[in-house]
Structure formats: C-alpha cells, structure tokens
Amino acid sequence: MPRNTSINSVLIIGSGPIVIGQACEFDYSGSQAALSLKEEGIEVSIINSNPATIMTDPVVADHVYLLPLTCESIEQILQEQKIDAVLPTMGGQTALNLCIEASNRGLWEKYNVQVIGVDVAAIEKTENREEFRQLMVDIGVGVAKSKIANSFLEGKEAAQEIGYPLVIRPSYTLAGTGGGFVHKKEEFDAALNRGLHASPTHEVLVEQAVLGWKEFELELLRDKNDNVIIICTIENFDPMGIHTGDSITVAPGMTLSDKCYQDMRNQAIKMMRSIGNFAGGCNVQFSVNPENEEIIAIEINPRVSRSSALASKATGYPIAKIAAKLAIGYNLDELQNQITKTTSAYFEPTLDYVIVKVPRFNFDKFKGANKELGLQMKAVGEVMAIGRTFIEALQKAAQSLETGRAGLGADGRQLRNLEEIMHSLEHPSSDRLFHIKDAFELGVPLESIRKATLIDKWFLVQIQELVQLETELRRYQLSNIPRDFFMTLKQKGYSDQQIAWLLGNVTEDEVYDRRKELGINRVYKMVDTCAAEFQAQTPYYYSTFETENESIVSDKKKIIVLGSGPNRIGQGIEFDYSCVHGLLAAKECGYEAIMVNCNPETVSTDFNMADKLYFEPVFWEHVREIIELEKPEGVIVQLGGQTALKMADRLEKLGVKIIGTSFENMDLAEDRGRFSDLLKDLDIPYPKYGVATSAEEAIQVANEVGYPVLVRPSYVLGGQGMSIVINDEDLEKAVVNLLKNLPGNHILIDHFLDRAEEAESDSICDGEDVHIIGMMEHIEPAGIHSGDSSAVLPPFSLSQAVQDKMEEYSIKLAKALNVRGLLNIQFAIKGENVYVIEANPRASRTVPFIAKAYDVPYINIATKVMLGANKLKDFTIERKLTGWAIKEPVFSFSKFPEVDKQLGPEMKSTGEAIRFIKDLQDPYFRELVSKKSMFLNAQ
Questions:
Q1: Nearest to 592 by CA among 568, 612, 577, 573
Q2: Whole-number Cα distances in Å, 390 to 316, 565, 586
Q3: What count of other Cβ atoms lies within 10 Å of the Cβ of residue 503?
Q4: pLDDT for residue 741
Q5: With 80 as the cut, is the pLDDT of residue 142 above it?
Q6: Contact indicator for 409, 434 with CB cutoff of 8 Å
Q7: Neighbours of 344 (CB within 10 A)
Q8: Residue 848 and which of 695, 699, 743, 755 are 20 to 30 A apart at CA?
Q9: What SS3 state is found at 560?
C-alpha cells in the first residue's frame, strides 16, 4: 500500500544541545529521516536549537528553525508553515516530552497536525513506570517486583514491602537521571528524595534490583500492517546495574541460548504491539537471569535511541530512514533494502562479523567526580569497532578510544597493584575493562574475576586467552615469530605497537615492516546486512586479517577525510559537522571522497555520506594501511579536530600529502612557544610568556613574566591541563601534575591578563586572500575557556578600532602561517589593546555556529580552497544575519553533583545552543550583558 498522500509537510523535532545521555546520535537519525522524507517529495521543517548539527543545515531540510525547544516555538512554526504531521521520534527524550506537552496544550489538534511514528498514548504508557509495569503484567511479560511512589511516605512503604537491594527509577527522565541503587536501609531516604526531585511528575518506581543479571537490547521496526522485524540484538558485556550507555555492548548477542533468544524476540514483538497502533521504530531492554534464563522487561522506548544509531551502523540497516517511511504509511515489503538495492526492507539483518561498542568517559574534566558507574549515564561518547571475532573487535575499540591505549593492555600502561585492581573490578569505572586483563596477568583466577564483576564467563575467557598469547609471544624475537602465530596475533586484534612493546627493544615500524615481509596484510570486508547471501552495493568496510579483500580500489582521484573519533568534552559534534561538509565539497570537486571514522553516533559514518566509508579506528596503523591501499591525492586533517591533527606529523614523514595548511605551519601554531616567537616577529601584541620543561624553570619564568600566570601544555584541545595560578607553590603543583600526565611536554607560562575581555575571529585563506567570516565577542572574560563562554556574533560592544586590529592581526597571521583553508584566532582585549592568545589553522567548535548564524556554506568554501579547486574570489560570501546570534554553552553537571562547577581555562561544557535576537534591548541579552559587567568588575 503506498504512502499516506494526505501528508505533504512534516515537522521533525530535534533533541537540542548535546548533554550526557543525549548526544549526536539524534543528529544522525534526524538527518536521515529528513532526507528520507524529502525523497518522497514531502516538505520538511526542522526545529532544533543545536547549531553544530547537520540536521539543521539547508542541505537536509526545506525549513530550519534554530529556536528553543518550547511549545511557543512549535506554535510559531505551525503558524508560519502548513504542517500536516509531526515526527517526534528522532529527537530522543527531549522531542518526545515536547510532543506530549504540545499535545496536552492542544496544539496538534488546533492546527490539525497528525502525530506520526508514535502514538502519544504509547509515550505515556512507556514513560509512566506504573502504567508500563501494569501493561507488562496484562500481556504476560515478566517484570521486576515494584511499586510506584509519588511521595516520600509511599516510597518508604514500597521499600519495606519489596526488600533490599532496590533500584529507584524516576519517571520521565533521560539517561537514568536521578536513579540509583539502594543496597541497605540507611541509604534509602537520600536516594528516594533525589529520585522524586529528578522526576518532572514527582514520581518514582521503587523496584527490586536484579543486580548481576545479563542485559540485552533489541531494536525493532513495525509497519501499519503490524509486521514487526528485529533489526539487531545487542548484548551488554557488563551486567545489570550499569547504565547501558556506560556499558560495553556487543552485537550479535554472544551468550544467548537459542531458546532464550526466541523467547526474548516473541516478548519484544508482543510488547511493541501492545503500546499503541503506530508505525516506526522501537527499542526494548530485557534482563536475563544467568542461572535459569528467566526474562524480565526493563523498558521500552517507542523512538529511535542511542542504540538505534549503533544498530544501524552495526548492521548497515538504516533504521531512522526506514522508520520515517513507515511513519508516512509505507509497509516494510514496499521499501528497498538500502544495501543490496535488490531485496526488500522486510528482512532481518544477518551479521557475519562482531561489533563492539565501548563508551568514552571524560572524568578528567570533572575533578573529584564519583567515577563508579551505575544507573545514571556518565559517558560523553562512544566508539564502535567491527571484527571477525569478539576479541578482535574489542581490541580495535580500545585503540579507537584515544585514551593512549594501543589495545587491551600490552602497552606499558597496565596496573600492577592487586588491591587497586580488585577494587576496580568490584566497583566498576571507566577502566574496569583494562583492569580485568591486568587481573589475569597477575594470575587472578577466572572464577574470582567473574564473582567480582558478574560478567559472563564466556567474555572473560576471551580476555584470558590474550594473556596466554602474550606469554607465548615473549618466547620469540621479531625475526623468528612463526608466520601462523604472527597472523593469529593480528587476528586477535593486536596492534603493531602492542607487539613491539611485548617483544621489547623493537619499534612499531619494525614490526610493521616484518609482517609486510611475511605477507600479513589487512584486508577489508564489506558490511552487507545479509552475510553475503545477496550482493551488497554499498561501499562500507571494516578491516581484518584474512586472504580475500573486498575493497576494490577505483582509478578515480581520491581524498581521504580523517574523522574526529569519539565525542568528548573539547571535541564533539562540531568536528563531525565539518567532516561531513568536507566530504560533500570533495565530491563536488570531482574526487572520490573516503571517510575514516569509528564513532557510531555521527552523520559522517552514515554509509551513504561518503563515496567509501572505512569504519575503522582513527589510529595510526589502521589509517596507514588504508592510505597504502587507496593511494589518495592527499588527506584532509583540518576537519577532524585534534584526532586528525595528531597524525599530521606521521603522514608528513610517510610522504603523504596533507591537503590545506602544511604540517609545518600547523605545528608552528600548535607549539605555544614557537607561536609566541612568531607573534613577536610580526609585531602583534601577546601576553608575556616563557617555556619550561620542569617546575624549577616554570617558577623562574613566572617570576619574570609576573603573576597571575596561565599554565598550559602544548598540543592539547579543550583547554586540557590549563590552570591559572597566583604563586610559586601553586605553580609547582600544576607543573608537576602536567608533566606526570603529559611527560616530555613543554609547559607554556603566560602572563594572565586579568579583567580582559575575550573575542574570536574565524577566517578562510587561500594563500593570497583572507576572508574573515565572522568575529565574536565573549560574555565571560579571558580566563574562562572559549567553549564554556557565551559568544555574540557580530561583536556588540567592541569599538571599531578594536575590530580593525582583530582583522589586521587575522590577516597577518593567516599569511605568516601560509594558511590554506580555515583559521580561528582568539584575542584578549584590555581597554583598546588587542592581544593574540592563540591561532588554530583548522576547524574549530565555532565553525557550525558561524555557518548557521550567517547562513554561509563555510566548510564547503574552505574545503574547495584547501583542495585548490577554487580561490576565494570565486565565491560571493553573503551574510544573512539580521541582528545578533548568541552561542550558549550547555553543561551536564547534574551527572556529577559533587564536582566544582566553577568555570576556568579547562573546558567543561558538553554542547551548545544558538539563540537569535533582533535588538540589543532584548531582556535575555541585557541579562547576559549585566553578567559580563559583573565578571569584569569582580576579577
């Protein structure tokens, strides 16, 4: 049956700023859904307040509303556009909650708008813990023993009836906010209060805690004919008790019996059919007793979720794209399989590989945070790896994290204190995976590790085998490792760096050369959704060590774009935005655009975004072999943040062309000491500075430049390790700490300009001309990281003389650094004096904000300039902003109530929102300005 022809215009609600628990996976789903609807000739409007997303780009939607996610904004859109239907399932919990609020206010009825993709009543059923529990009882699906509580007294009575341990789950919250385990009576009162206050309806579920049970997720799709398919089964490596967003997850399920799997499927389908008559996607979570395989339902989410993005990338099945088409009336058997192009979408993907997702944490940004994992999600991002086996994928995921690990251990960073290791196993944190391996290395029995972690024995056996392999490897020298054993090591996911460390006295390059001599090379396999039963048409690859290579190299000229890896504070979705536009521009210039990235949440890893996608760690060994296979014209490192930039040196040494600004000039800007010398030569004012390699040198420099001083290491992003100190004692502590965490790094000591304002310029240079795209004035003063400061575009109080100096210095620096492409410069302004703090000849987090505020194809132009396809004079750059745009940082401090929330030189925000004002008398803006005055006067 064809689509519903009464729907000609759809509004998609986005998820707003990035916060812990709701990240860029909804940019991916929203973008995919919008493009899917546009294919059908439907006019698409999008509301989202996050400027860093692809979904808020003109290439995705017909009408983009960068407005606060409120009912007032919704009504404004409904008045301006003729909207036939709203799709609220692509924007996470934020979009669902807003849809409910708009429904309660009667907006959808008033403007005759259908809610598609979900039933509003279904949202109520799934979010209201008591209604969900009762529904499961009615349909015969097992649930944990529980009681609802709307008051402190009701909660106490529920706890007395159920018994400990308990779990408290607030209604209508995101990522487990306000929830937690209660192991004993003395902890209950405080936990209950937290939960009641976290719930917008002052309601919690007091539930039996099934600690140690296994956890599984199923991703489902249903059409209007009630056909249901299971897209993916995901097993949590970690047992119940750790939020699934913080857990290592694996697909397909590794430890399920067939009987339990079939039972779980049947229950999931029954659950989806019970929550309303709608067509779209759904996520179901189950817990399984490892003793007898008893199954209980945890929750059902009638929307795309974090796991939907993961499942899409894991299987190649574009869940959001198909869900959008189901929402407008299509049936599954009427839609095409996007991978094979010859079969229908009414099939369940089959995996002949294993995917592993590992979360990425940023506890270093939250000093004093409780690092123990539990019901409240704390991860800021995630990586996904694909391998032929679980252990290969797990090692690749560890290499993808960008935490300095070369794999799962065997890299010199092992923990050797047994007491610390056992504490880590019993109290899970971000390092527990690595500490399991450390425990095996120290001889801790498998059963002891299983009892401490409650992780399934099958997973532990896989890790234990690595220790046995490493013991055998140490018997050899590089020259006499048998080829078969060398091949086994590579198939188990070992990096050349790990093998070099295990052998000792050899380098990574020597290991690489030796295995090449032995003919041990990476081959690339296609992600095809159907285990090669049908031929796949989509160039989407992962690497392994076998004989057949499925990645056929074309004779086209190619460009490789290196992605930004996992989201973390200081490097987030804005760099993926830049990468996506870089790919699109490269394609427009006639290149075959190749993407390398490992982040399953992003648009850049959508299988139809690049001409060719390698879902691989942005880790030197992997990148090197892709380059050797593809032989590109060059590699773009400017768009992927610090992840890509860190490879520029090795690319240069390998003779690979870096597209855009050269490594030498990027390095000059990154090296704080050399950069300050350049400013001196150019007669550009800068704070007095000095470089130190020890605490003694730092004290000497600080006394020369004068306190207060800003202490910072070279080559970092997001203000990592920066601090402001006012005396020798504090300086010594700061420097010792930096050198401990970043050994061998040069420490820059800058005189800190107190009571100074901060501003930024963003520009493009083609080697001859410089075009300043935008200048921003910060609300917060110098000393607070630019990512944590509200910024106003264009400046609202800086004199014309100051702006002229900013422009003059930007042009001088662009030419002195021989920039080809992007340049971001940060300034400190004191009175009418303008000082340059730093220059970044790469994409920065301000790029999408300026692009959206001015409606300028910023990255598209910059990439074409980098590629040498165009000069700046070929473009007419027209800014369409009337009034001012304000970038507002957004924080996730609610996840870490115990940490110091004071802002400083190290970035702490997880995302940002954009707001437009027409008039400087706007009340919101006047409040910001008064805050600025207060900051400057108080410093």
A1: 612
A2: 18, 21, 35
A3: 17
A4: 67
A5: yes
A6: yes
A7: 13
A8: 755
A9: strand
Looking at the predicted structure, is the pLDDT value of residue 753 above 50?
A: yes
Classify residue 373 as exposed, middle or buried by CB count within 10 Å of its CB (0-12, 13-18, 19+): buried
Query: Per the structure block, which two tokens stand in for 811?
Result: 């042009």
Strand partners, 747: 692, 713
Higher pLDDT, 170 or 827: 827
Q: 781: which DSSP letter?
A: P
Q: Do 495 and 621 meet the contact criterion of CB atoms below 8 Å apart?
A: yes
Q: 770 pLDDT band (50/70/90 cuts)?
A: very high
Averaged pLDDT, 453-465: 97
Strand, coil or helix: what is 13?
strand
The number of angstroms, rounded, from the C-alpha of 7 to the middle of its chain's C-alpha atoms is 33
Beta strand 523-526 pairing with 592-597: unpaired
Closest-CA residue to 628 (of 644, 602, 651): 651
Go through 33-62 and write b for each residue having 16 or more CB atoms within 10 A of its CB, e for each that does not.
bbbbbbebebbbbbbbbbbbbbbbbeebbb
Closest CA to 901 of 888, 889, 892, 913: 892
Going by their DSSP bridges, the two strands 689-692 and 634-636 should be labelled as unpaired
Mean pLDDT, rounded, for 17-27: 89
pLDDT in tens, 879-922: 999 999 999 999 988 888 888 888 888 899 999 999 999 999 99
Average pLDDT (506-533) is: 90
Pairing of strands 43-47, 747-751: unpaired
What is the residue type of 452? A
Among 231, 327, 226, residue whose Cα is nearest residue 272: 226
Tokens of 301: 């989410």
Lowest mean pLDDT among 30-39, 162-171, 408-417: 162-171
Determine how many CB atoms are found less than 10 A away from the CB of residue 633: 16
Exposure string of 472-497, with b = 16+ CB inside 10 Å and e = fewer, is: ebeeeebeebeeeebbebbbbbbbbb
Which two structure tokens, joined as six digits, stand for 154?
A: 């009701």
For residue 372, the tally of other CB atoms under 10 A from its CB is 14
The answer to whether the beta carbons of residues 45 and 10 sit under 8 Å apart is yes
Q: Which residues of 840-851 are buried (b: 16+ CB within 10 A; e: fewer)?
A: bbbbbbbbbbbb
More confident residue, 63 or 723: 63
Report the SS3 class of residue 839: strand
For the cut 60, the answer to whether the pLDDT of residue 717 exceeds it is no
DSSP character at residue 280: E
pLDDT band at 933 (very low <50, low <70, confident <90, very high): low
Residues 6+ apart with CB under 8 A from 814: 763, 765, 770, 823
pLDDT attached to residue 536? 62
